[in-house]
Amino acid sequence: MRILVVEDEPDLRAVVVAGLRAAGFSVDEAADWAAADELCDVNTYLCVVLDRVLPDGDALERLQERRRRGWAAPVLFLTALDSLDDRIAGLEGGADDYLPKPFALPELVLRVRSLARRADHRLPVFLRFADLELDLARHEVRRAGVLLSLTPKERAVLHALLARADQVVTKGELFDQCWDEMAEPSSNVVEAVVAGLRRKLGPPPLVHTVWGRGFRLGHPAATGPAVADPPRATRGRARGADGSARTGSNGRPGTTR
């Protein structure tokens, strides 16, 4: 789940970002409304944690402008403006929740999780596929009743795959949903997390590679040649019509390329 934190005080922003990442969220950050506005134009966020008083003005007015244009991302105001009138103005102006400073980080995490769940209303709190179960409320994954120890990123990728079970999810889609702006898209980070997830889920495999397209969560019996891992013959020695290994002109076994 991807979150945006907009806070101009660097130390406080670092604490909030670290706390949300530790809770399993992918978090982007901005120090003013101008930067936040650009991020909201190009990314989809399940929640935005927004300070009201920013260097470039009152964020309430900017939020109202975006709401008038149809922007629907849930917003939690995290602000020192804590009077009753301030809270009413914030909620009437388009915020979905309002948490005054000082605040307790565990409470902020719970409020963000609640808003993010509400935004992703198409998904239940409990997801199941075959003998695999994901409890979003407890952050627990079980296979055949056995509790598995997954990293937050592995849970996020599994969540994305479970949400579209039996459909192909591209590497780019996984990256957009499960990583934030600080991650390096050119690295093999997605493949590494999927590999770790496969290993921890154990046999029979449920996460399949769709070559040239992405990944799919599917039943082993329903996996066809286009989805399953390539047979060993295509990754090792080339075979002749009689099944024997071909050799090159130097007498060494040939390989497919």
Automatic annotation (TrEMBL):
Q: Does the keyword rRNA-binding apply?
A: no
Which one Pfam family would you cite for this protein? Response_reg
The protein's matches in InterPro entries, at most eight in alphabetical order, are given as: CheY-like_superfamily (IPR011006), OmpR/PhoB-type_DNA-bd (IPR001867), Sig_transdc_resp-reg_receiver (IPR001789), WalR-like (IPR039420), WH-like_DNA-bd_sf (IPR036388)
What keywords is this UniProt entry annotated with?
A: DNA-binding, Phosphoprotein
Q: Identify the residues that the record assigns to the Response regulatory domain, covering every copy.
A: 2-116
Q: Which Gene3D superfamilies match?
A: 3.40.50.2300, 6.10.250.690, Winged helix-like DNA-binding domain superfamily/Winged helix DNA-binding domain
* Ranges annotated as DNA-binding: 124-219
**Residues recorded as bearing 4-aspartylphosphate in the entry:** D51
Quick one: where's region Disordered?
Answer: 221-257
Q: Which SUPFAM superfamilies match?
A: CheY-like (SSF52172)
Domain OmpR/PhoB-type, residue spans? 124-219
The protein, known as: Response regulator transcription factor
Q: Which organism is it from?
A: Kitasatospora paranensis
The organism's taxonomy opens as: Bacteria, Bacillati, Actinomycetota, Actinomycetes, Kitasatosporales
